[in-house]
Amino acid sequence: MKQILLGAAAFAAATAYPVFGFAQSGITAGGAIDIGKREYFYSCAVCHGNAGKGDGPLVELLRKTPTDLTTIQKNNGGVFPFDRLYAVIDGREVLSAHGPREMPVWGDQFRVDAAELGRGFPLSPQNAESLGRGRIIALIGYIYTLQSK
Predict the structure, then answer these.
(1) What is the pLDDT of residues 40-51, one digit of tens each?
(2) Least packed by Cβ within 10 Å: which of 23, 69, 72, 96?
(3) Which ranges in 21-103 belong to alpha helices (H)?
(4) How far apart are CA 132 and CA 111, in angstroms?
(5) Are residues 15 and 45 in the same domain?
(6) Could you give phi then psi for residue 65, rounded to 5 degrees?
(7) 44 and 113 share a domain?
(8) 79 with 67, same domain?
(9) How far is CA 129 from CA 28, 39, 89, 142, in A?
C-alpha cells in the first residue's frame, strides 16, 4: 500500500511539474535550458521571490527581508555591479563592513553540485571550480534580466 501511495505521489508530481513548473524550470518552450534562470528558481526564488522583489515564500521565516534584486542596478547609479554580486553569491569574500552574512553561501554548494555531476567522469577540483563559477555567472546574467528599467 505504501508503495502504491508513493508511486501515485511521484506520478502526480511528474504530471503537475510540466504544468506548474515549466516556466520556472529554466527550460524554454523550445527545449533550450536557461542555466541562470534554473539556478535562480532552484536556489534564490524561495527567499527573493519569482520576480526578484524579495517576497519569496520563506520571507516570514527570515530575520531580515531579502534584497529586492530588481533594483540593484538602479541603486548602484545605473551600473550593474557584477563583481559585487559574484562576491556575495560565491561567499568566499567576506565584507566585514556589512556585518554577518544574512544570505547563504552558494559558491560552495555550486562547486559540490558540480563535483557530483562528475561522478564516473574525470572531474578535477579545478573543473568543479570552473563549473561552479559558470553557474554563478549564469545566475548573475539572469538577475541582470530582472532589473527594472
Answers:
(1) 999 899 999 999
(2) 96
(3) 35-43, 45-48, 82-90
(4) 5
(5) no
(6) -65, 130
(7) yes
(8) yes
(9) 27, 16, 14, 20
Torsion of CA 46, 47, 49, 54, to 10 degrees: 180
Q: Record the pTM.
A: 0.69
Residue 51, all three cell numbers? 520576480
How many structural domains are present in the chain? 2
Span 2-20, pLDDT tens digits: 344 333 333 333 333 333 3
DSSP 8-state assignment for residue 59? G
Do residue 136 and residue 95 come from a single domain?
yes
On whether both 75 and 140 belong to a single domain, the answer is yes
Residue 26 pLDDT: 60
Supply angle C-alpha 125, 129, 134, rounded to 5.
150
Measured CA to CA, the distance from residue 104 to residue 1 in angstroms comes to: 39
pLDDT digits (tens, 9 = 90+) for 48-62: 999 999 999 988 988
Instruction: Please indicate, yes or no, whether residues 51 and 96 belong to a single structural domain of this protein.
Output: yes
- b/e for 49-72, b at 16 or more Cβ within 10 A? bbebbbebeeeeeeeeebbbbbeb
Q: Which three cell numbers stand for residue 89?
A: 553569491
Contact 89, 48 (CB under 8 A): no
